[in-house]
Design brief:
By secondary structure, the chain is an alpha/beta fold. The protein is built from twelve helices and twelve strands. It folds into three domains: 44 residues, lambda repressor-like DNA-binding domains (434 Repressor (Amino-terminal Domain)); 121 residues, Rossmann fold (3-Layer(aba) Sandwich); 129 residues, Rossmann fold (3-Layer(aba) Sandwich). The longest helix is centred in the middle third of the chain and has 17 residues. It binds alpha-D-ribofuranose. Alpha-D-ribofuranose (RIB) binds next to β9. It holds the Pfam family Peripla_BP_1.
Length: 326
Amino acid sequence: MATIRDVAKRAGVSVATVSRVLNETGYVHADTKAAVKKAIEELNYKPNYVARSLYQKSSRLIGLILPDITNPFFPELARAVEDVAHQYGYTVVLCNSDGDLEKEKHYLDVLTQNHADGLIVTTNRQNNLNYINLNIPVVALDRPLHESIPEVCADHYGGGKMATEYLIRRGCNFIAHVRGPGQLSPADERCRGFVNAAEKAGVPFYIVESQFDITISEQKVSELLDTYPRIDGIFAGNDLIAVAAVKVALKRGISIPEELQVIGFDGIPLSACFYPSITTIVQPIYEMGQCATKLLIQLITNQGVTAKKHCLPVKLVERETTKRMG
Ligand code: RIB
């Protein structure tokens, strides 16, 4: 494999000149620059990015740590991060932590040891001290990391409240919230919105804790409907839980939305193409990823940031699992 010395020899210049061309630093005559680039092409020279990042003190790498890339919510988030990072000349290193803190810490170590310029993190553990006092900027995406770390998220509380008020307006008299995992901020906030709306309306309600997972949620919804067959509305903590609820109800011969209404959260593509299509609270997933990446690049390039928390609005999309007005 060609080295920088081979390029210098082929171009008839010093190694330092080749380095200046590669790092776009210092003055190099146009003819010399052309000769160096011609030598690079002829030799198929590939710069050593580790050495280059040490020289430039910038690897142009952004670490993206996500908890579960099999959940359709996260690939859309990653797509937005990668689009913006690429636009600004950064390469994204995607890390799937499985919500495992040991694995997450391993990825954090690898990224920092490889001089990542910054991190975007969706973690299952709030107040995670591993991310404090790093020598690179961090942005928390979807879930808070620590009060000192900027965050980009959707309005989880407002979405939970909106979903619940909607079910009540659609005539539900006994509603359940099949929520995401405990101690997870988005799930906690959606649940808080649900409880506040149900209590304010004086509508009886019940809460079941599940996971953001179809199979587990099918079991939880089955137990719920066995125990409380009079449930006529379910606010699901995310769209995968909503799919599980609809599946269990239809297998039991419960008609949707006539006997049971279901509303989800996220707005993943599956919610629209599932039959019946799922009424849901749509998160601005792509915009969240864009916002987090632009925020991180501002921090990397020391442009400062306007606010520590960016909470983006959600919207309700009516489909076939809830009753139409009128
Ligand atoms: O579906 C995955 C869930 O985890 C989403 O609701 C998202 O907000 C994340 O918290």
